[in-house]
């Protein structure tokens, strides 16, 4: 844990999806700078935790953003307070063009940093007129990341950005995440422990919808006993499981 | 013609019920009360006709009992029930009243209800005096059923007075439904029998576009066009006839409805030749004046179906006065000739057809609106329907 | 990788995919199956066999096409190429219903139950499906009949014996998984496809569920094909592993051999080159 | 020949009115999955208020006519917006209940209109020119049909441009595809839904004024009568597809017109048969599953 | 079969209610504000019979919506087919009532198979639309009077030549009343039967999860068709009694309005509950009848226009009530009653007969 005030704190969060309890009790802090990784096996509720912070699923518990309670707010209000969200399956609008996908993300009242987006993803400029649905998975991931980078955010919630990407793209996304983390703190869900090792400073580990471990990222990944127990892998091998 | 009543359009599905009852004012020292049930459209699509009928009926009872509501020591007690234009509701009300031993039922504007009521009257052996419903099938249907209005055949026969000379070509322009087909059959029966060559342009009931059918009328090159049209689409229909210049081809005859419909004809109104059942200025007699005055005094407006109610009142009083049981009432009414708002009426003994005068009229502009003007009175005997054989 | 030895009890295995170790026709055979959706190749040229009575795992990264492969086998969607055989019979053109009747059962990646019905009713429907007469207007399911009795037994077996009258939709996640397996057991299907049975199961529940699956194979003699990301569980259960990657079948071999394969390591286990 | 021309052009006129009703239905369904039974009520309301205003400022003047179009559209829009805000929105994502609520609303409001304007048709007049005819290839075509066609085409273009060119349009197209993601981007998608209802209501209100000239009257049930055809049009065109609705409107109106004239009034049956055939061969309609 | 206490109480209560209903024509009970007169008189009996027949049709609609989850906007077609079918058969042929009813039944069943087979090719909203369109075609047909069969707008009156005397005439209303009671009890038992037989259970499962049913090796399409035909057959049967009660067939019986009123009854009563369907139908009939009376009452007439106009339209009040129920009382009458009595507790033991958890009255 860092000593500075965390930008986002979550206490006793629980959430329901599809009529069932999927998150039972999650506590976590997102440090004011850098990347905090949210880890856990498949289906432990990482995505649901992020959605619960956004307000996209029914939830109870306390969520505080920069000292302000946001757990009663609707998703669009949460977003307007500066929470950027990159969903697990990219969720680009396939009928809209790439440019439209970026434009729709423009939040009123903040500066729109197209230059930054086009700098890290020059491809998005080239393919501005293409329907997002026809993009490859990797390109769609760029759109999804571009959509949050365009605004000035207080915190970014990024869910498995490397999922299903080729190794080369994984590296590229890793580079972008590093850039993103420079402008805003990030809560990152990631299965690829190599990416986590490269980026994250803190980790929070979930099991069965509960947060069971908080700590320094490096220490956690180094500790075989912990990674074996919580992720079913040897952290040292940097594998996904 | 368009004053008919068959529409049933906008059947809005309620099974609404038995209305509150009102009792006619009593006078003298009655020894017994005779309960009369009137089932009519107080609400629903034909509520306006219902109001005319009811106002006429009250005036008629008053006139025939000299304002006492009592005749020969028998007090007439009227219960009104709302049929909402809905057959199920009407039947439910009728059964309720019959179950309470009512011996006289009356009313209704809707032909379908009238037919069903006639059926109930026969099954339960009570007297039924139907209202403005124009359906021909009611005439001669059974011993227990009478009518206080006119029937379609009388309308059609009135139209015949616009024909001059023999072997003319008449085209019936009507909706292809029971009402339109009935009118076509009537024209065929009456004008055809007078030597006219009758053909038709029938418009599918659910068609919304009448212009192509109007051009068919032009192509037929008739000597007279008889229009039988009911319902909301009539304004549109008249406009189509005008747009396709049908009025230049031959005289167009139709029935004149109640006053609210005058505007529906639009600017073509002055080109139409109307046959007519009644408008307040048509008859010239004392009873009519009395009726008009009584209705206006009651805060209502005399209109197309006022005499139907008035005559119903006269018939009820006659039946109550002269008959002690249903058979006696039937005997009292059959063959009865009396003076009413349209002059002399006769209830034909064989089939209970109500023989009465009819009118021809035209609409003339009066400022922004239209008013009817009498052309001619057609004597009742000239337009008497052929005798029905059913009964 | 740890615990590779956990699969030591598996019988000696052929080294090439597609050879049936047992005698006779394989329980399930997939020949040259492929699927294209709107130009995208989701699966291509998948061929393998599963011998009768064997238990086989399917692994591969997210989006590799594992669920899609199950959908093709169970008939939820038709393949664009290739054929599928069940006990030697070509079932490629058969409907989901026909395949189920021929003895093919499956679970879904996200639990697929009758959420509004009771737990017992869920299993009873499954066990009655076996008896036919689903359209019967003259047969009444009753508390004491065979199907109900069997449903009870099975629910006892998977540990849901005290939840019979619960609404299935209100069960905790792990119990839903167990319920699905009970339904599968009730249908008597000879070949069963399990799509990530451990997904979302709290770690405390994993051993119990693993045991149920093991019994499904061992005691009930079903041929099992299962997708599972939970490697520990998988390696402890299966006799063979198939690896899917970007819609192709990368390898199919004993767990030990697969884990040792460098291509698999880089493709699935994520060792970037 | 001239009969065919007459049937074609008047059929297009009727199709234009069907389109004005079904465009809103289709948009609403596409975005929200709500089958709006109250849509006919928006139409009647637009027609009634349009006529109330026109008859006060002079129904036969062009100014009165134009004003009635504006008022009709506004009335339909306002009614629709309120419906969305207070009824539909509260049943977030409960589609069957949303349908039921619109069914109940339609029942109640038609009855209310009965009470206010009476069940009798209210006859409607417009500028004299509308009642006159223009001769096209020997057919005397009433002028109001041309007005309907022009308005429908303008509405189609306006909605397409709106969806394609404006930010709101973009949000609506995105919302059709993935509603929760739009929210997660900081956009209150509910106002987009209200807007879609409002646009649909405006088109219906406009359609109501034109329909009242086409039929020559307004009555409380006018909208509900047209609604059944609009449903059929929407399903044939593909729920959610605007171009589908446009094509299907013309198809249905022409089929109805020709079958009524040449096949002794079987227009309605022909339309039902067409619906059955389309559903059996292409269950998602001619242009199903597309936003535009 | 083993019974638990609540089943016994409910069955006993049901039987008692039926016996009470059967005795009504012999008693002199007045319920002011609800019945138009004392119960021995034809007016009240007619209304009660109507309410029972509507309850029976609502029960058949409950099979569609509550059991199989099929939102149909065309159920009136089969009710209407029963009404018109019997009317036409009795008018066209000189055959006794019972064979005529049998023949009508056959017609309804064939009709239901044909239209059901087509409509069930689609699901959800398109299913609602197709059924609406078919029913619309049926209602147009009835209004058009093809071959002078249906009597058009005016409807078709019952030809009593072959109807036994004890069913004709106002004084025999109580016989028709008893017939309606028998029809309702029979319908209830039929619906209970269908719900508890295999097909009924599979239909409920299909409503919950269609793909699951297929994966278990059963055919959802066939099951839905069975339920569709069963519901249509019941509706047709009730339609025939309705014809005897009303003595005439009118286009309203086939209209979309009629289906919507069925929907109204079932939703008011609580979707998925048999007693709810009955309660909803009774409430609907009573309200339509009595609201009309209310509408014409003096105190409404004296109200200012803003209140008078809405209050004097029964359908406005019903429609509003319906909207309120959908929005605020999702379980309808049955749900609200269940909440009050707190009957639906979860029990951990399972010795009771297994009935499905949702569709229990
Ligand atoms: N809408 C839903 N309906 C039913 N179950 C759901 C729903 N959403 C999530 N779940 C279940 O909730 C559990 C947690 O899901 P979640 O997506 O949050 O997990 P995760 O940790 O993000 O997993 P993954 O690593 O696969 O992304 C899973 O078991 C999932 O199946
Ligand atoms: N209907 C479809 N249209 C387009 N693409 C599809 C469709 N269905 C599946 N896909 C794609 O096919 C690929 C394989 O999906 P599948 O669900 O089979 O993956 P999986 O191996 O089961 O992954 P996971 O482990 O995440 O469940 C994915 O990229 C998916 O997006
Ligand atoms: Mg996730
Ligand atoms: Mg999968």
Largest sheet of chain A: 6 strands, mixed
Instruction: From the 3D structure, determine the CATH topology of chain A.
Output: Rossmann fold
* Count of individual domains of chain A: 1
Q: What string gives the helices and strands of chain A in order? A: EEEHEEHEHHHHEHEHEEHH
Output the radius of gyration of chain D.
19 Å
Distance between the termini of chain D: 36 Å
CATH superfamily of chain A: P-loop containing nucleotide triphosphate hydrolases
Mean of pLDDT of chain A: 84
Low-confidence stretches of chain D: none
Strand order of the largest sheet of chain A: 6-7-8-3-9-10
From the spread of the alpha carbons, the general shape of chain A counts as globular
Q: Kindly provide the radius of gyration of chain A, computed on alpha-carbon positions and rounded to a whole number of angstroms.
A: 17 Å
Q: Residue share in helices of chain D?
A: over 70%
Strand content of chain A: 25-35%
Instruction: Tell how many strands the DSSP assignment of chain A holds.
Output: 10
Can you list the strand order of the major beta sheet of chain D? 1-4
Query: What is the end-to-end distance of chain A?
Result: 25 Å
From the 3D coordinates, which CATH architecture of chain A would you assign? 3-Layer(aba) Sandwich
Organism (chain E): Ornithinicoccus hortensis
GO molecular function, one term (chain E): branched-chain amino acid transmembrane transporter activity
Pfam family, one (chain E): BPD_transp_2
Membrane topology (chain E): Multi-pass membrane protein
């Amino acid at each position: 844990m860092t000593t500075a005030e965390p930008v986002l704190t979550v206490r006793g969060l629980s959430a329901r999806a599809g009529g069932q309890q999927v998150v039972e009790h999650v506590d976590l802090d997102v440090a004011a700078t850098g990347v905090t990784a949210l880890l856990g096996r498949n289906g432990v509720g990482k995505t649901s935790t992020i959605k619960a912070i956004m307000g996209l699923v029914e939830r109870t518990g306390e969520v505080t953003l920069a000292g302000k309670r946001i757990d009663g707010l609707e998703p669009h209000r949460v977003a307007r307070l500066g929470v950027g969200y990159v969903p697990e399956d990219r969720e680009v609008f396939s009928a809209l063009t790439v440019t439209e996908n970026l434009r729709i993300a423009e939040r009123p009242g903040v500066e729109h940093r197209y230059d930054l987006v086009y700098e890290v993803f020059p491809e998005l400029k080239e393919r501005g007129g293409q329907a997002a649905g026809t993009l490859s998975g990797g390109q769609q991931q760029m759109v999804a990341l571009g959509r949050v980078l365009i605004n000035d955010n207080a915190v970014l919630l990024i869910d498995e950005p490397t999922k299903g990407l080729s190794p080369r793209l994984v590296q590229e996304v890793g580079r972008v995440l590093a850039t993103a983390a420079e402008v805003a703190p990030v809560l990152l869900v990631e299965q690829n422990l190599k990416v986590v090792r490269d980026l994250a400073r803190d980790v929070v580990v979930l099991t069965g919808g509960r947060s069971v471990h908080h700590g320094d990222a490096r220490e956690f990944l180094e500790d075989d006993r912990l990674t074996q127990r919580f992720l079913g892998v040897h952290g040292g091998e940097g594998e996904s499981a | 013609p368009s004053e008919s009543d068959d529409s049933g359009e906008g059947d809005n599905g309620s099974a609404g019920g038995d209305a509150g009852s009102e009792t006619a004012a009593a006078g003298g020292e009655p020894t017994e009360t005779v309960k009369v049930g009137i089932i009519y459209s107080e609400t629903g699509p034909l509520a306006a006709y219902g109001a005319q009928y009811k106002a006429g009926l009250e005036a008629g009872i008053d006139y025939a009992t000299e304002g006492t509501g009592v005749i020969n020591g028998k007090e007439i007690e009227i219960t009104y029930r709302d049929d909402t234009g809905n057959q199920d509701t009407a039947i439910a009300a009728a059964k309720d009243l019959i179950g309470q031993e009512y011996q006289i039922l009356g009313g209704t504007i809707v032909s379908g209800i009238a037919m069903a009521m006639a059926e109930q009257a026969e099954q339960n052996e009570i007297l039924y005096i139907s209202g403005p419903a124009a359906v021909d099938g009611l005439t001669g249907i059974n011993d227990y059923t009478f009518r206080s209005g006119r029937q379609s055949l009388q309308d059609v026969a009135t139209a015949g007075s616009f024909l001059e000379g023999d072997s003319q070509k008449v085209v019936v322009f009507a909706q292809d439904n029971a009402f339109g087909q009935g009118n076509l059959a009537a024209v065929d029966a009456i004008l055809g029998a007078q030597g006219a060559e009758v053909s038709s342009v029938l418009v599918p009931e659910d068609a919304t576009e009448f212009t192509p059918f109007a051009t068919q009328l032009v192509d037929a090159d008739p000597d007279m066009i008889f229009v039988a049209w009911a319902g909301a689409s009539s304004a549109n229909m008249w406009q189509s006839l005008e747009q396709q210049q049908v009025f230049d081809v031959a005289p167009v005859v139709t029935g004149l409805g109640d006053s609210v419909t005058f505007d529906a004809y639009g600017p073509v109104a002055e080109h139409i030749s109307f046959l007519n059942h009644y408008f307040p200025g048509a008859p010239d007699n004392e009873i009519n004046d009395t009726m008009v005055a009584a209705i206006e005094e009651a805060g209502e407006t005399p209109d197309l179906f006022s005499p139907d109610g008035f005559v119903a009142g006269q018939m009820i009083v006659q039946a109550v006065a002269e008959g002690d049981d249903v058979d006696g009432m039937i005997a009292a009414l059959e063959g009865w000739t009396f003076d009413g708002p349209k002059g002399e009426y006769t209830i034909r003994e064989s089939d209970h057809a109500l023989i009465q005068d009819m009118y021809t009229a035209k609409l003339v502009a009066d400022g922004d609106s239209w008013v009817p003007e009498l052309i001619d009175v057609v004597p009742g005997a000239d337009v008497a329907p052929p005798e029905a054989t059913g009964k | 990788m740890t615990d590779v030895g956990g699969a030591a009890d598996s019988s000696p295995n052929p080294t090439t995919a597609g050879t049936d170790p047992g005698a006779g026709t394989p329980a399930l055979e997939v020949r040259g199956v492929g699927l294209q959706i709107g130009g995208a190749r989701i699966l291509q040229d998948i061929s393998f066999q599963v011998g009768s009575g064997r238990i086989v795992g399917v692994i591969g990264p997210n989006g590799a096409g594992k669920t899609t492969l199950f959908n093709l086998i169970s008939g939820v969607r038709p393949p664009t190429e290739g054929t599928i055989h069940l006990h030697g019979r070509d079932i490629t053109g058969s409907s989901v219903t026909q395949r189920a009747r021929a003895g093919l059962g499956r679970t879904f990646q996200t639990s697929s139950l009758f959420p509004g019905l009771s737990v017992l009713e869920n299993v009873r429907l499954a066990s009655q499906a076996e008896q036919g007469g689903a359209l019967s207007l003259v047969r009444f399911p009753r508390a004491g009949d065979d199907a109900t009795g069997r449903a009870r037994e099975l629910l006892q077996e998977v540990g849901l014996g005290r939840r019979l009258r619960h609404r299935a939709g209100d069960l905790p996640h792990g119990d839903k998984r167990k319920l699905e397996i009970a339904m599968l057991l009730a249908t008597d299907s000879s070949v069963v496809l399990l799509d990530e049975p451990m997904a979302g199961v709290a770690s405390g529940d994993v051993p119990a569920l693993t045991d149920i699956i093991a019994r499904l194979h061992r005691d009930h003699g079903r041929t099992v094909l299962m997708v599972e990301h939970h490697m520990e569980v998988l390696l402890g259960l299966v006799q063979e592993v198939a690896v899917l990657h970007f819609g192709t079948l990368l390898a199919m071999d004993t767990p030990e051999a697969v884990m040792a394969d460098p291509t698999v390591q880089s493709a699935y286990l994520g060792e970037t080159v | 020949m001239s009969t065919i021309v007459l049937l074609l052009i008047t059929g297009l006129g009727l199709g234009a009115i069907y389109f004005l009703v079904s465009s809103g239905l289709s948009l609403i369904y596409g975005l929200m999955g709500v089958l709006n039974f109250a849509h006919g009520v928006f139409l009647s309301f637009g027609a009634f208020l349009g006529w109330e205003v026109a008859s006060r400022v002079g129904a036969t003047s062009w100014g009165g006519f134009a004003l009635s179009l504006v008022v009709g559209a506004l009335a339909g829009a306002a009614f629709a917006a309120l419906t969305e805000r207070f009824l539909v929105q509260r049943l977030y994502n409960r589609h069957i209940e949303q349908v039921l609520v619109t069914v109940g609303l339609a029942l109640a409001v038609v009855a209310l209109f009965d009470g206010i304007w009476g069940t009798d048709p209210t006859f409607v007049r417009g500028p004299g020119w509308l009642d006159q005819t223009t001769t096209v290839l020997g057919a005397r075509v009433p002028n109001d049909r041309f007005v309907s066609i022009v308005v429908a085409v303008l509405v189609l273009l306006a909605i397409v441009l709106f969806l394609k060119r404006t930010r709101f349009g973009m949000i609506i197209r995105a919302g059709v595809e993935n509603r929760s993601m739009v929210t997660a981007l900081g956009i209150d998608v509910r106002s987009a839904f209200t807007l879609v209802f409002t646009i649909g209501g405006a088109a219906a209100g406009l359609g109501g004024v034109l329909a009242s000239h086409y039929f020559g009257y307004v009555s409380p049930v006018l909208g509900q009568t047209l609604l059944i055809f609009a449903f059929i049009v929407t399903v044939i065109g593909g729920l959610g597809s605007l171009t589908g609705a446009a094509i299907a409107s013309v198809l249905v109106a022409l089929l109805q017109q020709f079958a009524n004239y040449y096949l002794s009034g079987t227009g309605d049956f022909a339309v039902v048969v067409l619906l059955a055939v389309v559903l059996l061969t292409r269950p998602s309609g001619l242009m199903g599953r597309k936003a535009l | 079969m083993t019974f638990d206490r609540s089943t016994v109480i409910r069955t006993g209560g049901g039987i008692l209610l039926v016996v009470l209903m059967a005795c009504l024509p012999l008693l002199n009970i007045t319920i002011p504000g609800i019945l138009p007169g004392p119960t021995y008189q034809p007016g009240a009996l007619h209304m009660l019979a109507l309410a029972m027949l509507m309850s029976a049709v609502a029960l058949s609609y409950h099979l569609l919506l509550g059991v199989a989850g099929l939102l149909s906007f065309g159920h009136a077609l089969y009710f209407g087919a029963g009404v018109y079918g019997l009317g036409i058969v009795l008018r066209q042929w000189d055959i006794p009532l019972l064979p005529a009813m049998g023949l009508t039944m056959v017609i309804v069943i064939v009709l239901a198979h044909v239209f059901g087979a087509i409509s069930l090719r689609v699901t959800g909203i398109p299913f609602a639309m197709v059924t609406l369109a078919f029913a619309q075609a049926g209602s147009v047909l009835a209004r058009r009077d093809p071959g002078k069969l249906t009597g058009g707008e005016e409807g078709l009156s019952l030809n009593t030549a072959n109807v036994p005397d004890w069913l004709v005439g106002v004084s025999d209303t109580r016989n028709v009343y008893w017939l309606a009671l028998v029809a309702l009890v029979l319908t209830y038992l039929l619906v209970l039967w269908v719900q508890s037989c295999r097909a009924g259970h599979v239909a409920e499962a299909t409503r919950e999860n269609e793909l699951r049913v297929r994966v278990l090796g059963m055919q959802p399409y066939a099951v839905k068709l069975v339920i569709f035909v069963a519901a249509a057959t019941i509706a047709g049967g009730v339609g025939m009694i309705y014809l005897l009660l009303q003595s005439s067939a009118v286009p309203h019986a086939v209209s979309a309005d009629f289906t919507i009123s069925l929907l109204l009854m079932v939703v008011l009563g609580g979707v998925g509950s048999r007693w709810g369907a009955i309660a909803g139908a009774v409430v609907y009939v009573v309200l339509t009848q009595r609201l009309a009376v209310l509408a014409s009452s003096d105190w409404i007439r004296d109200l200012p226009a803003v209140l008078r106009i809405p209050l004097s339209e029964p359908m406005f009040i019903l429609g509003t009530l319906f909207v309120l129920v959908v929005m605020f009382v999702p379980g309808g009458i049955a749900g609200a009653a269940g909440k009050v009595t707190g009957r639906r507790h979860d029990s951990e033991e399972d010795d009771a007969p297994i009935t499905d958890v949702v569709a229990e009255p």
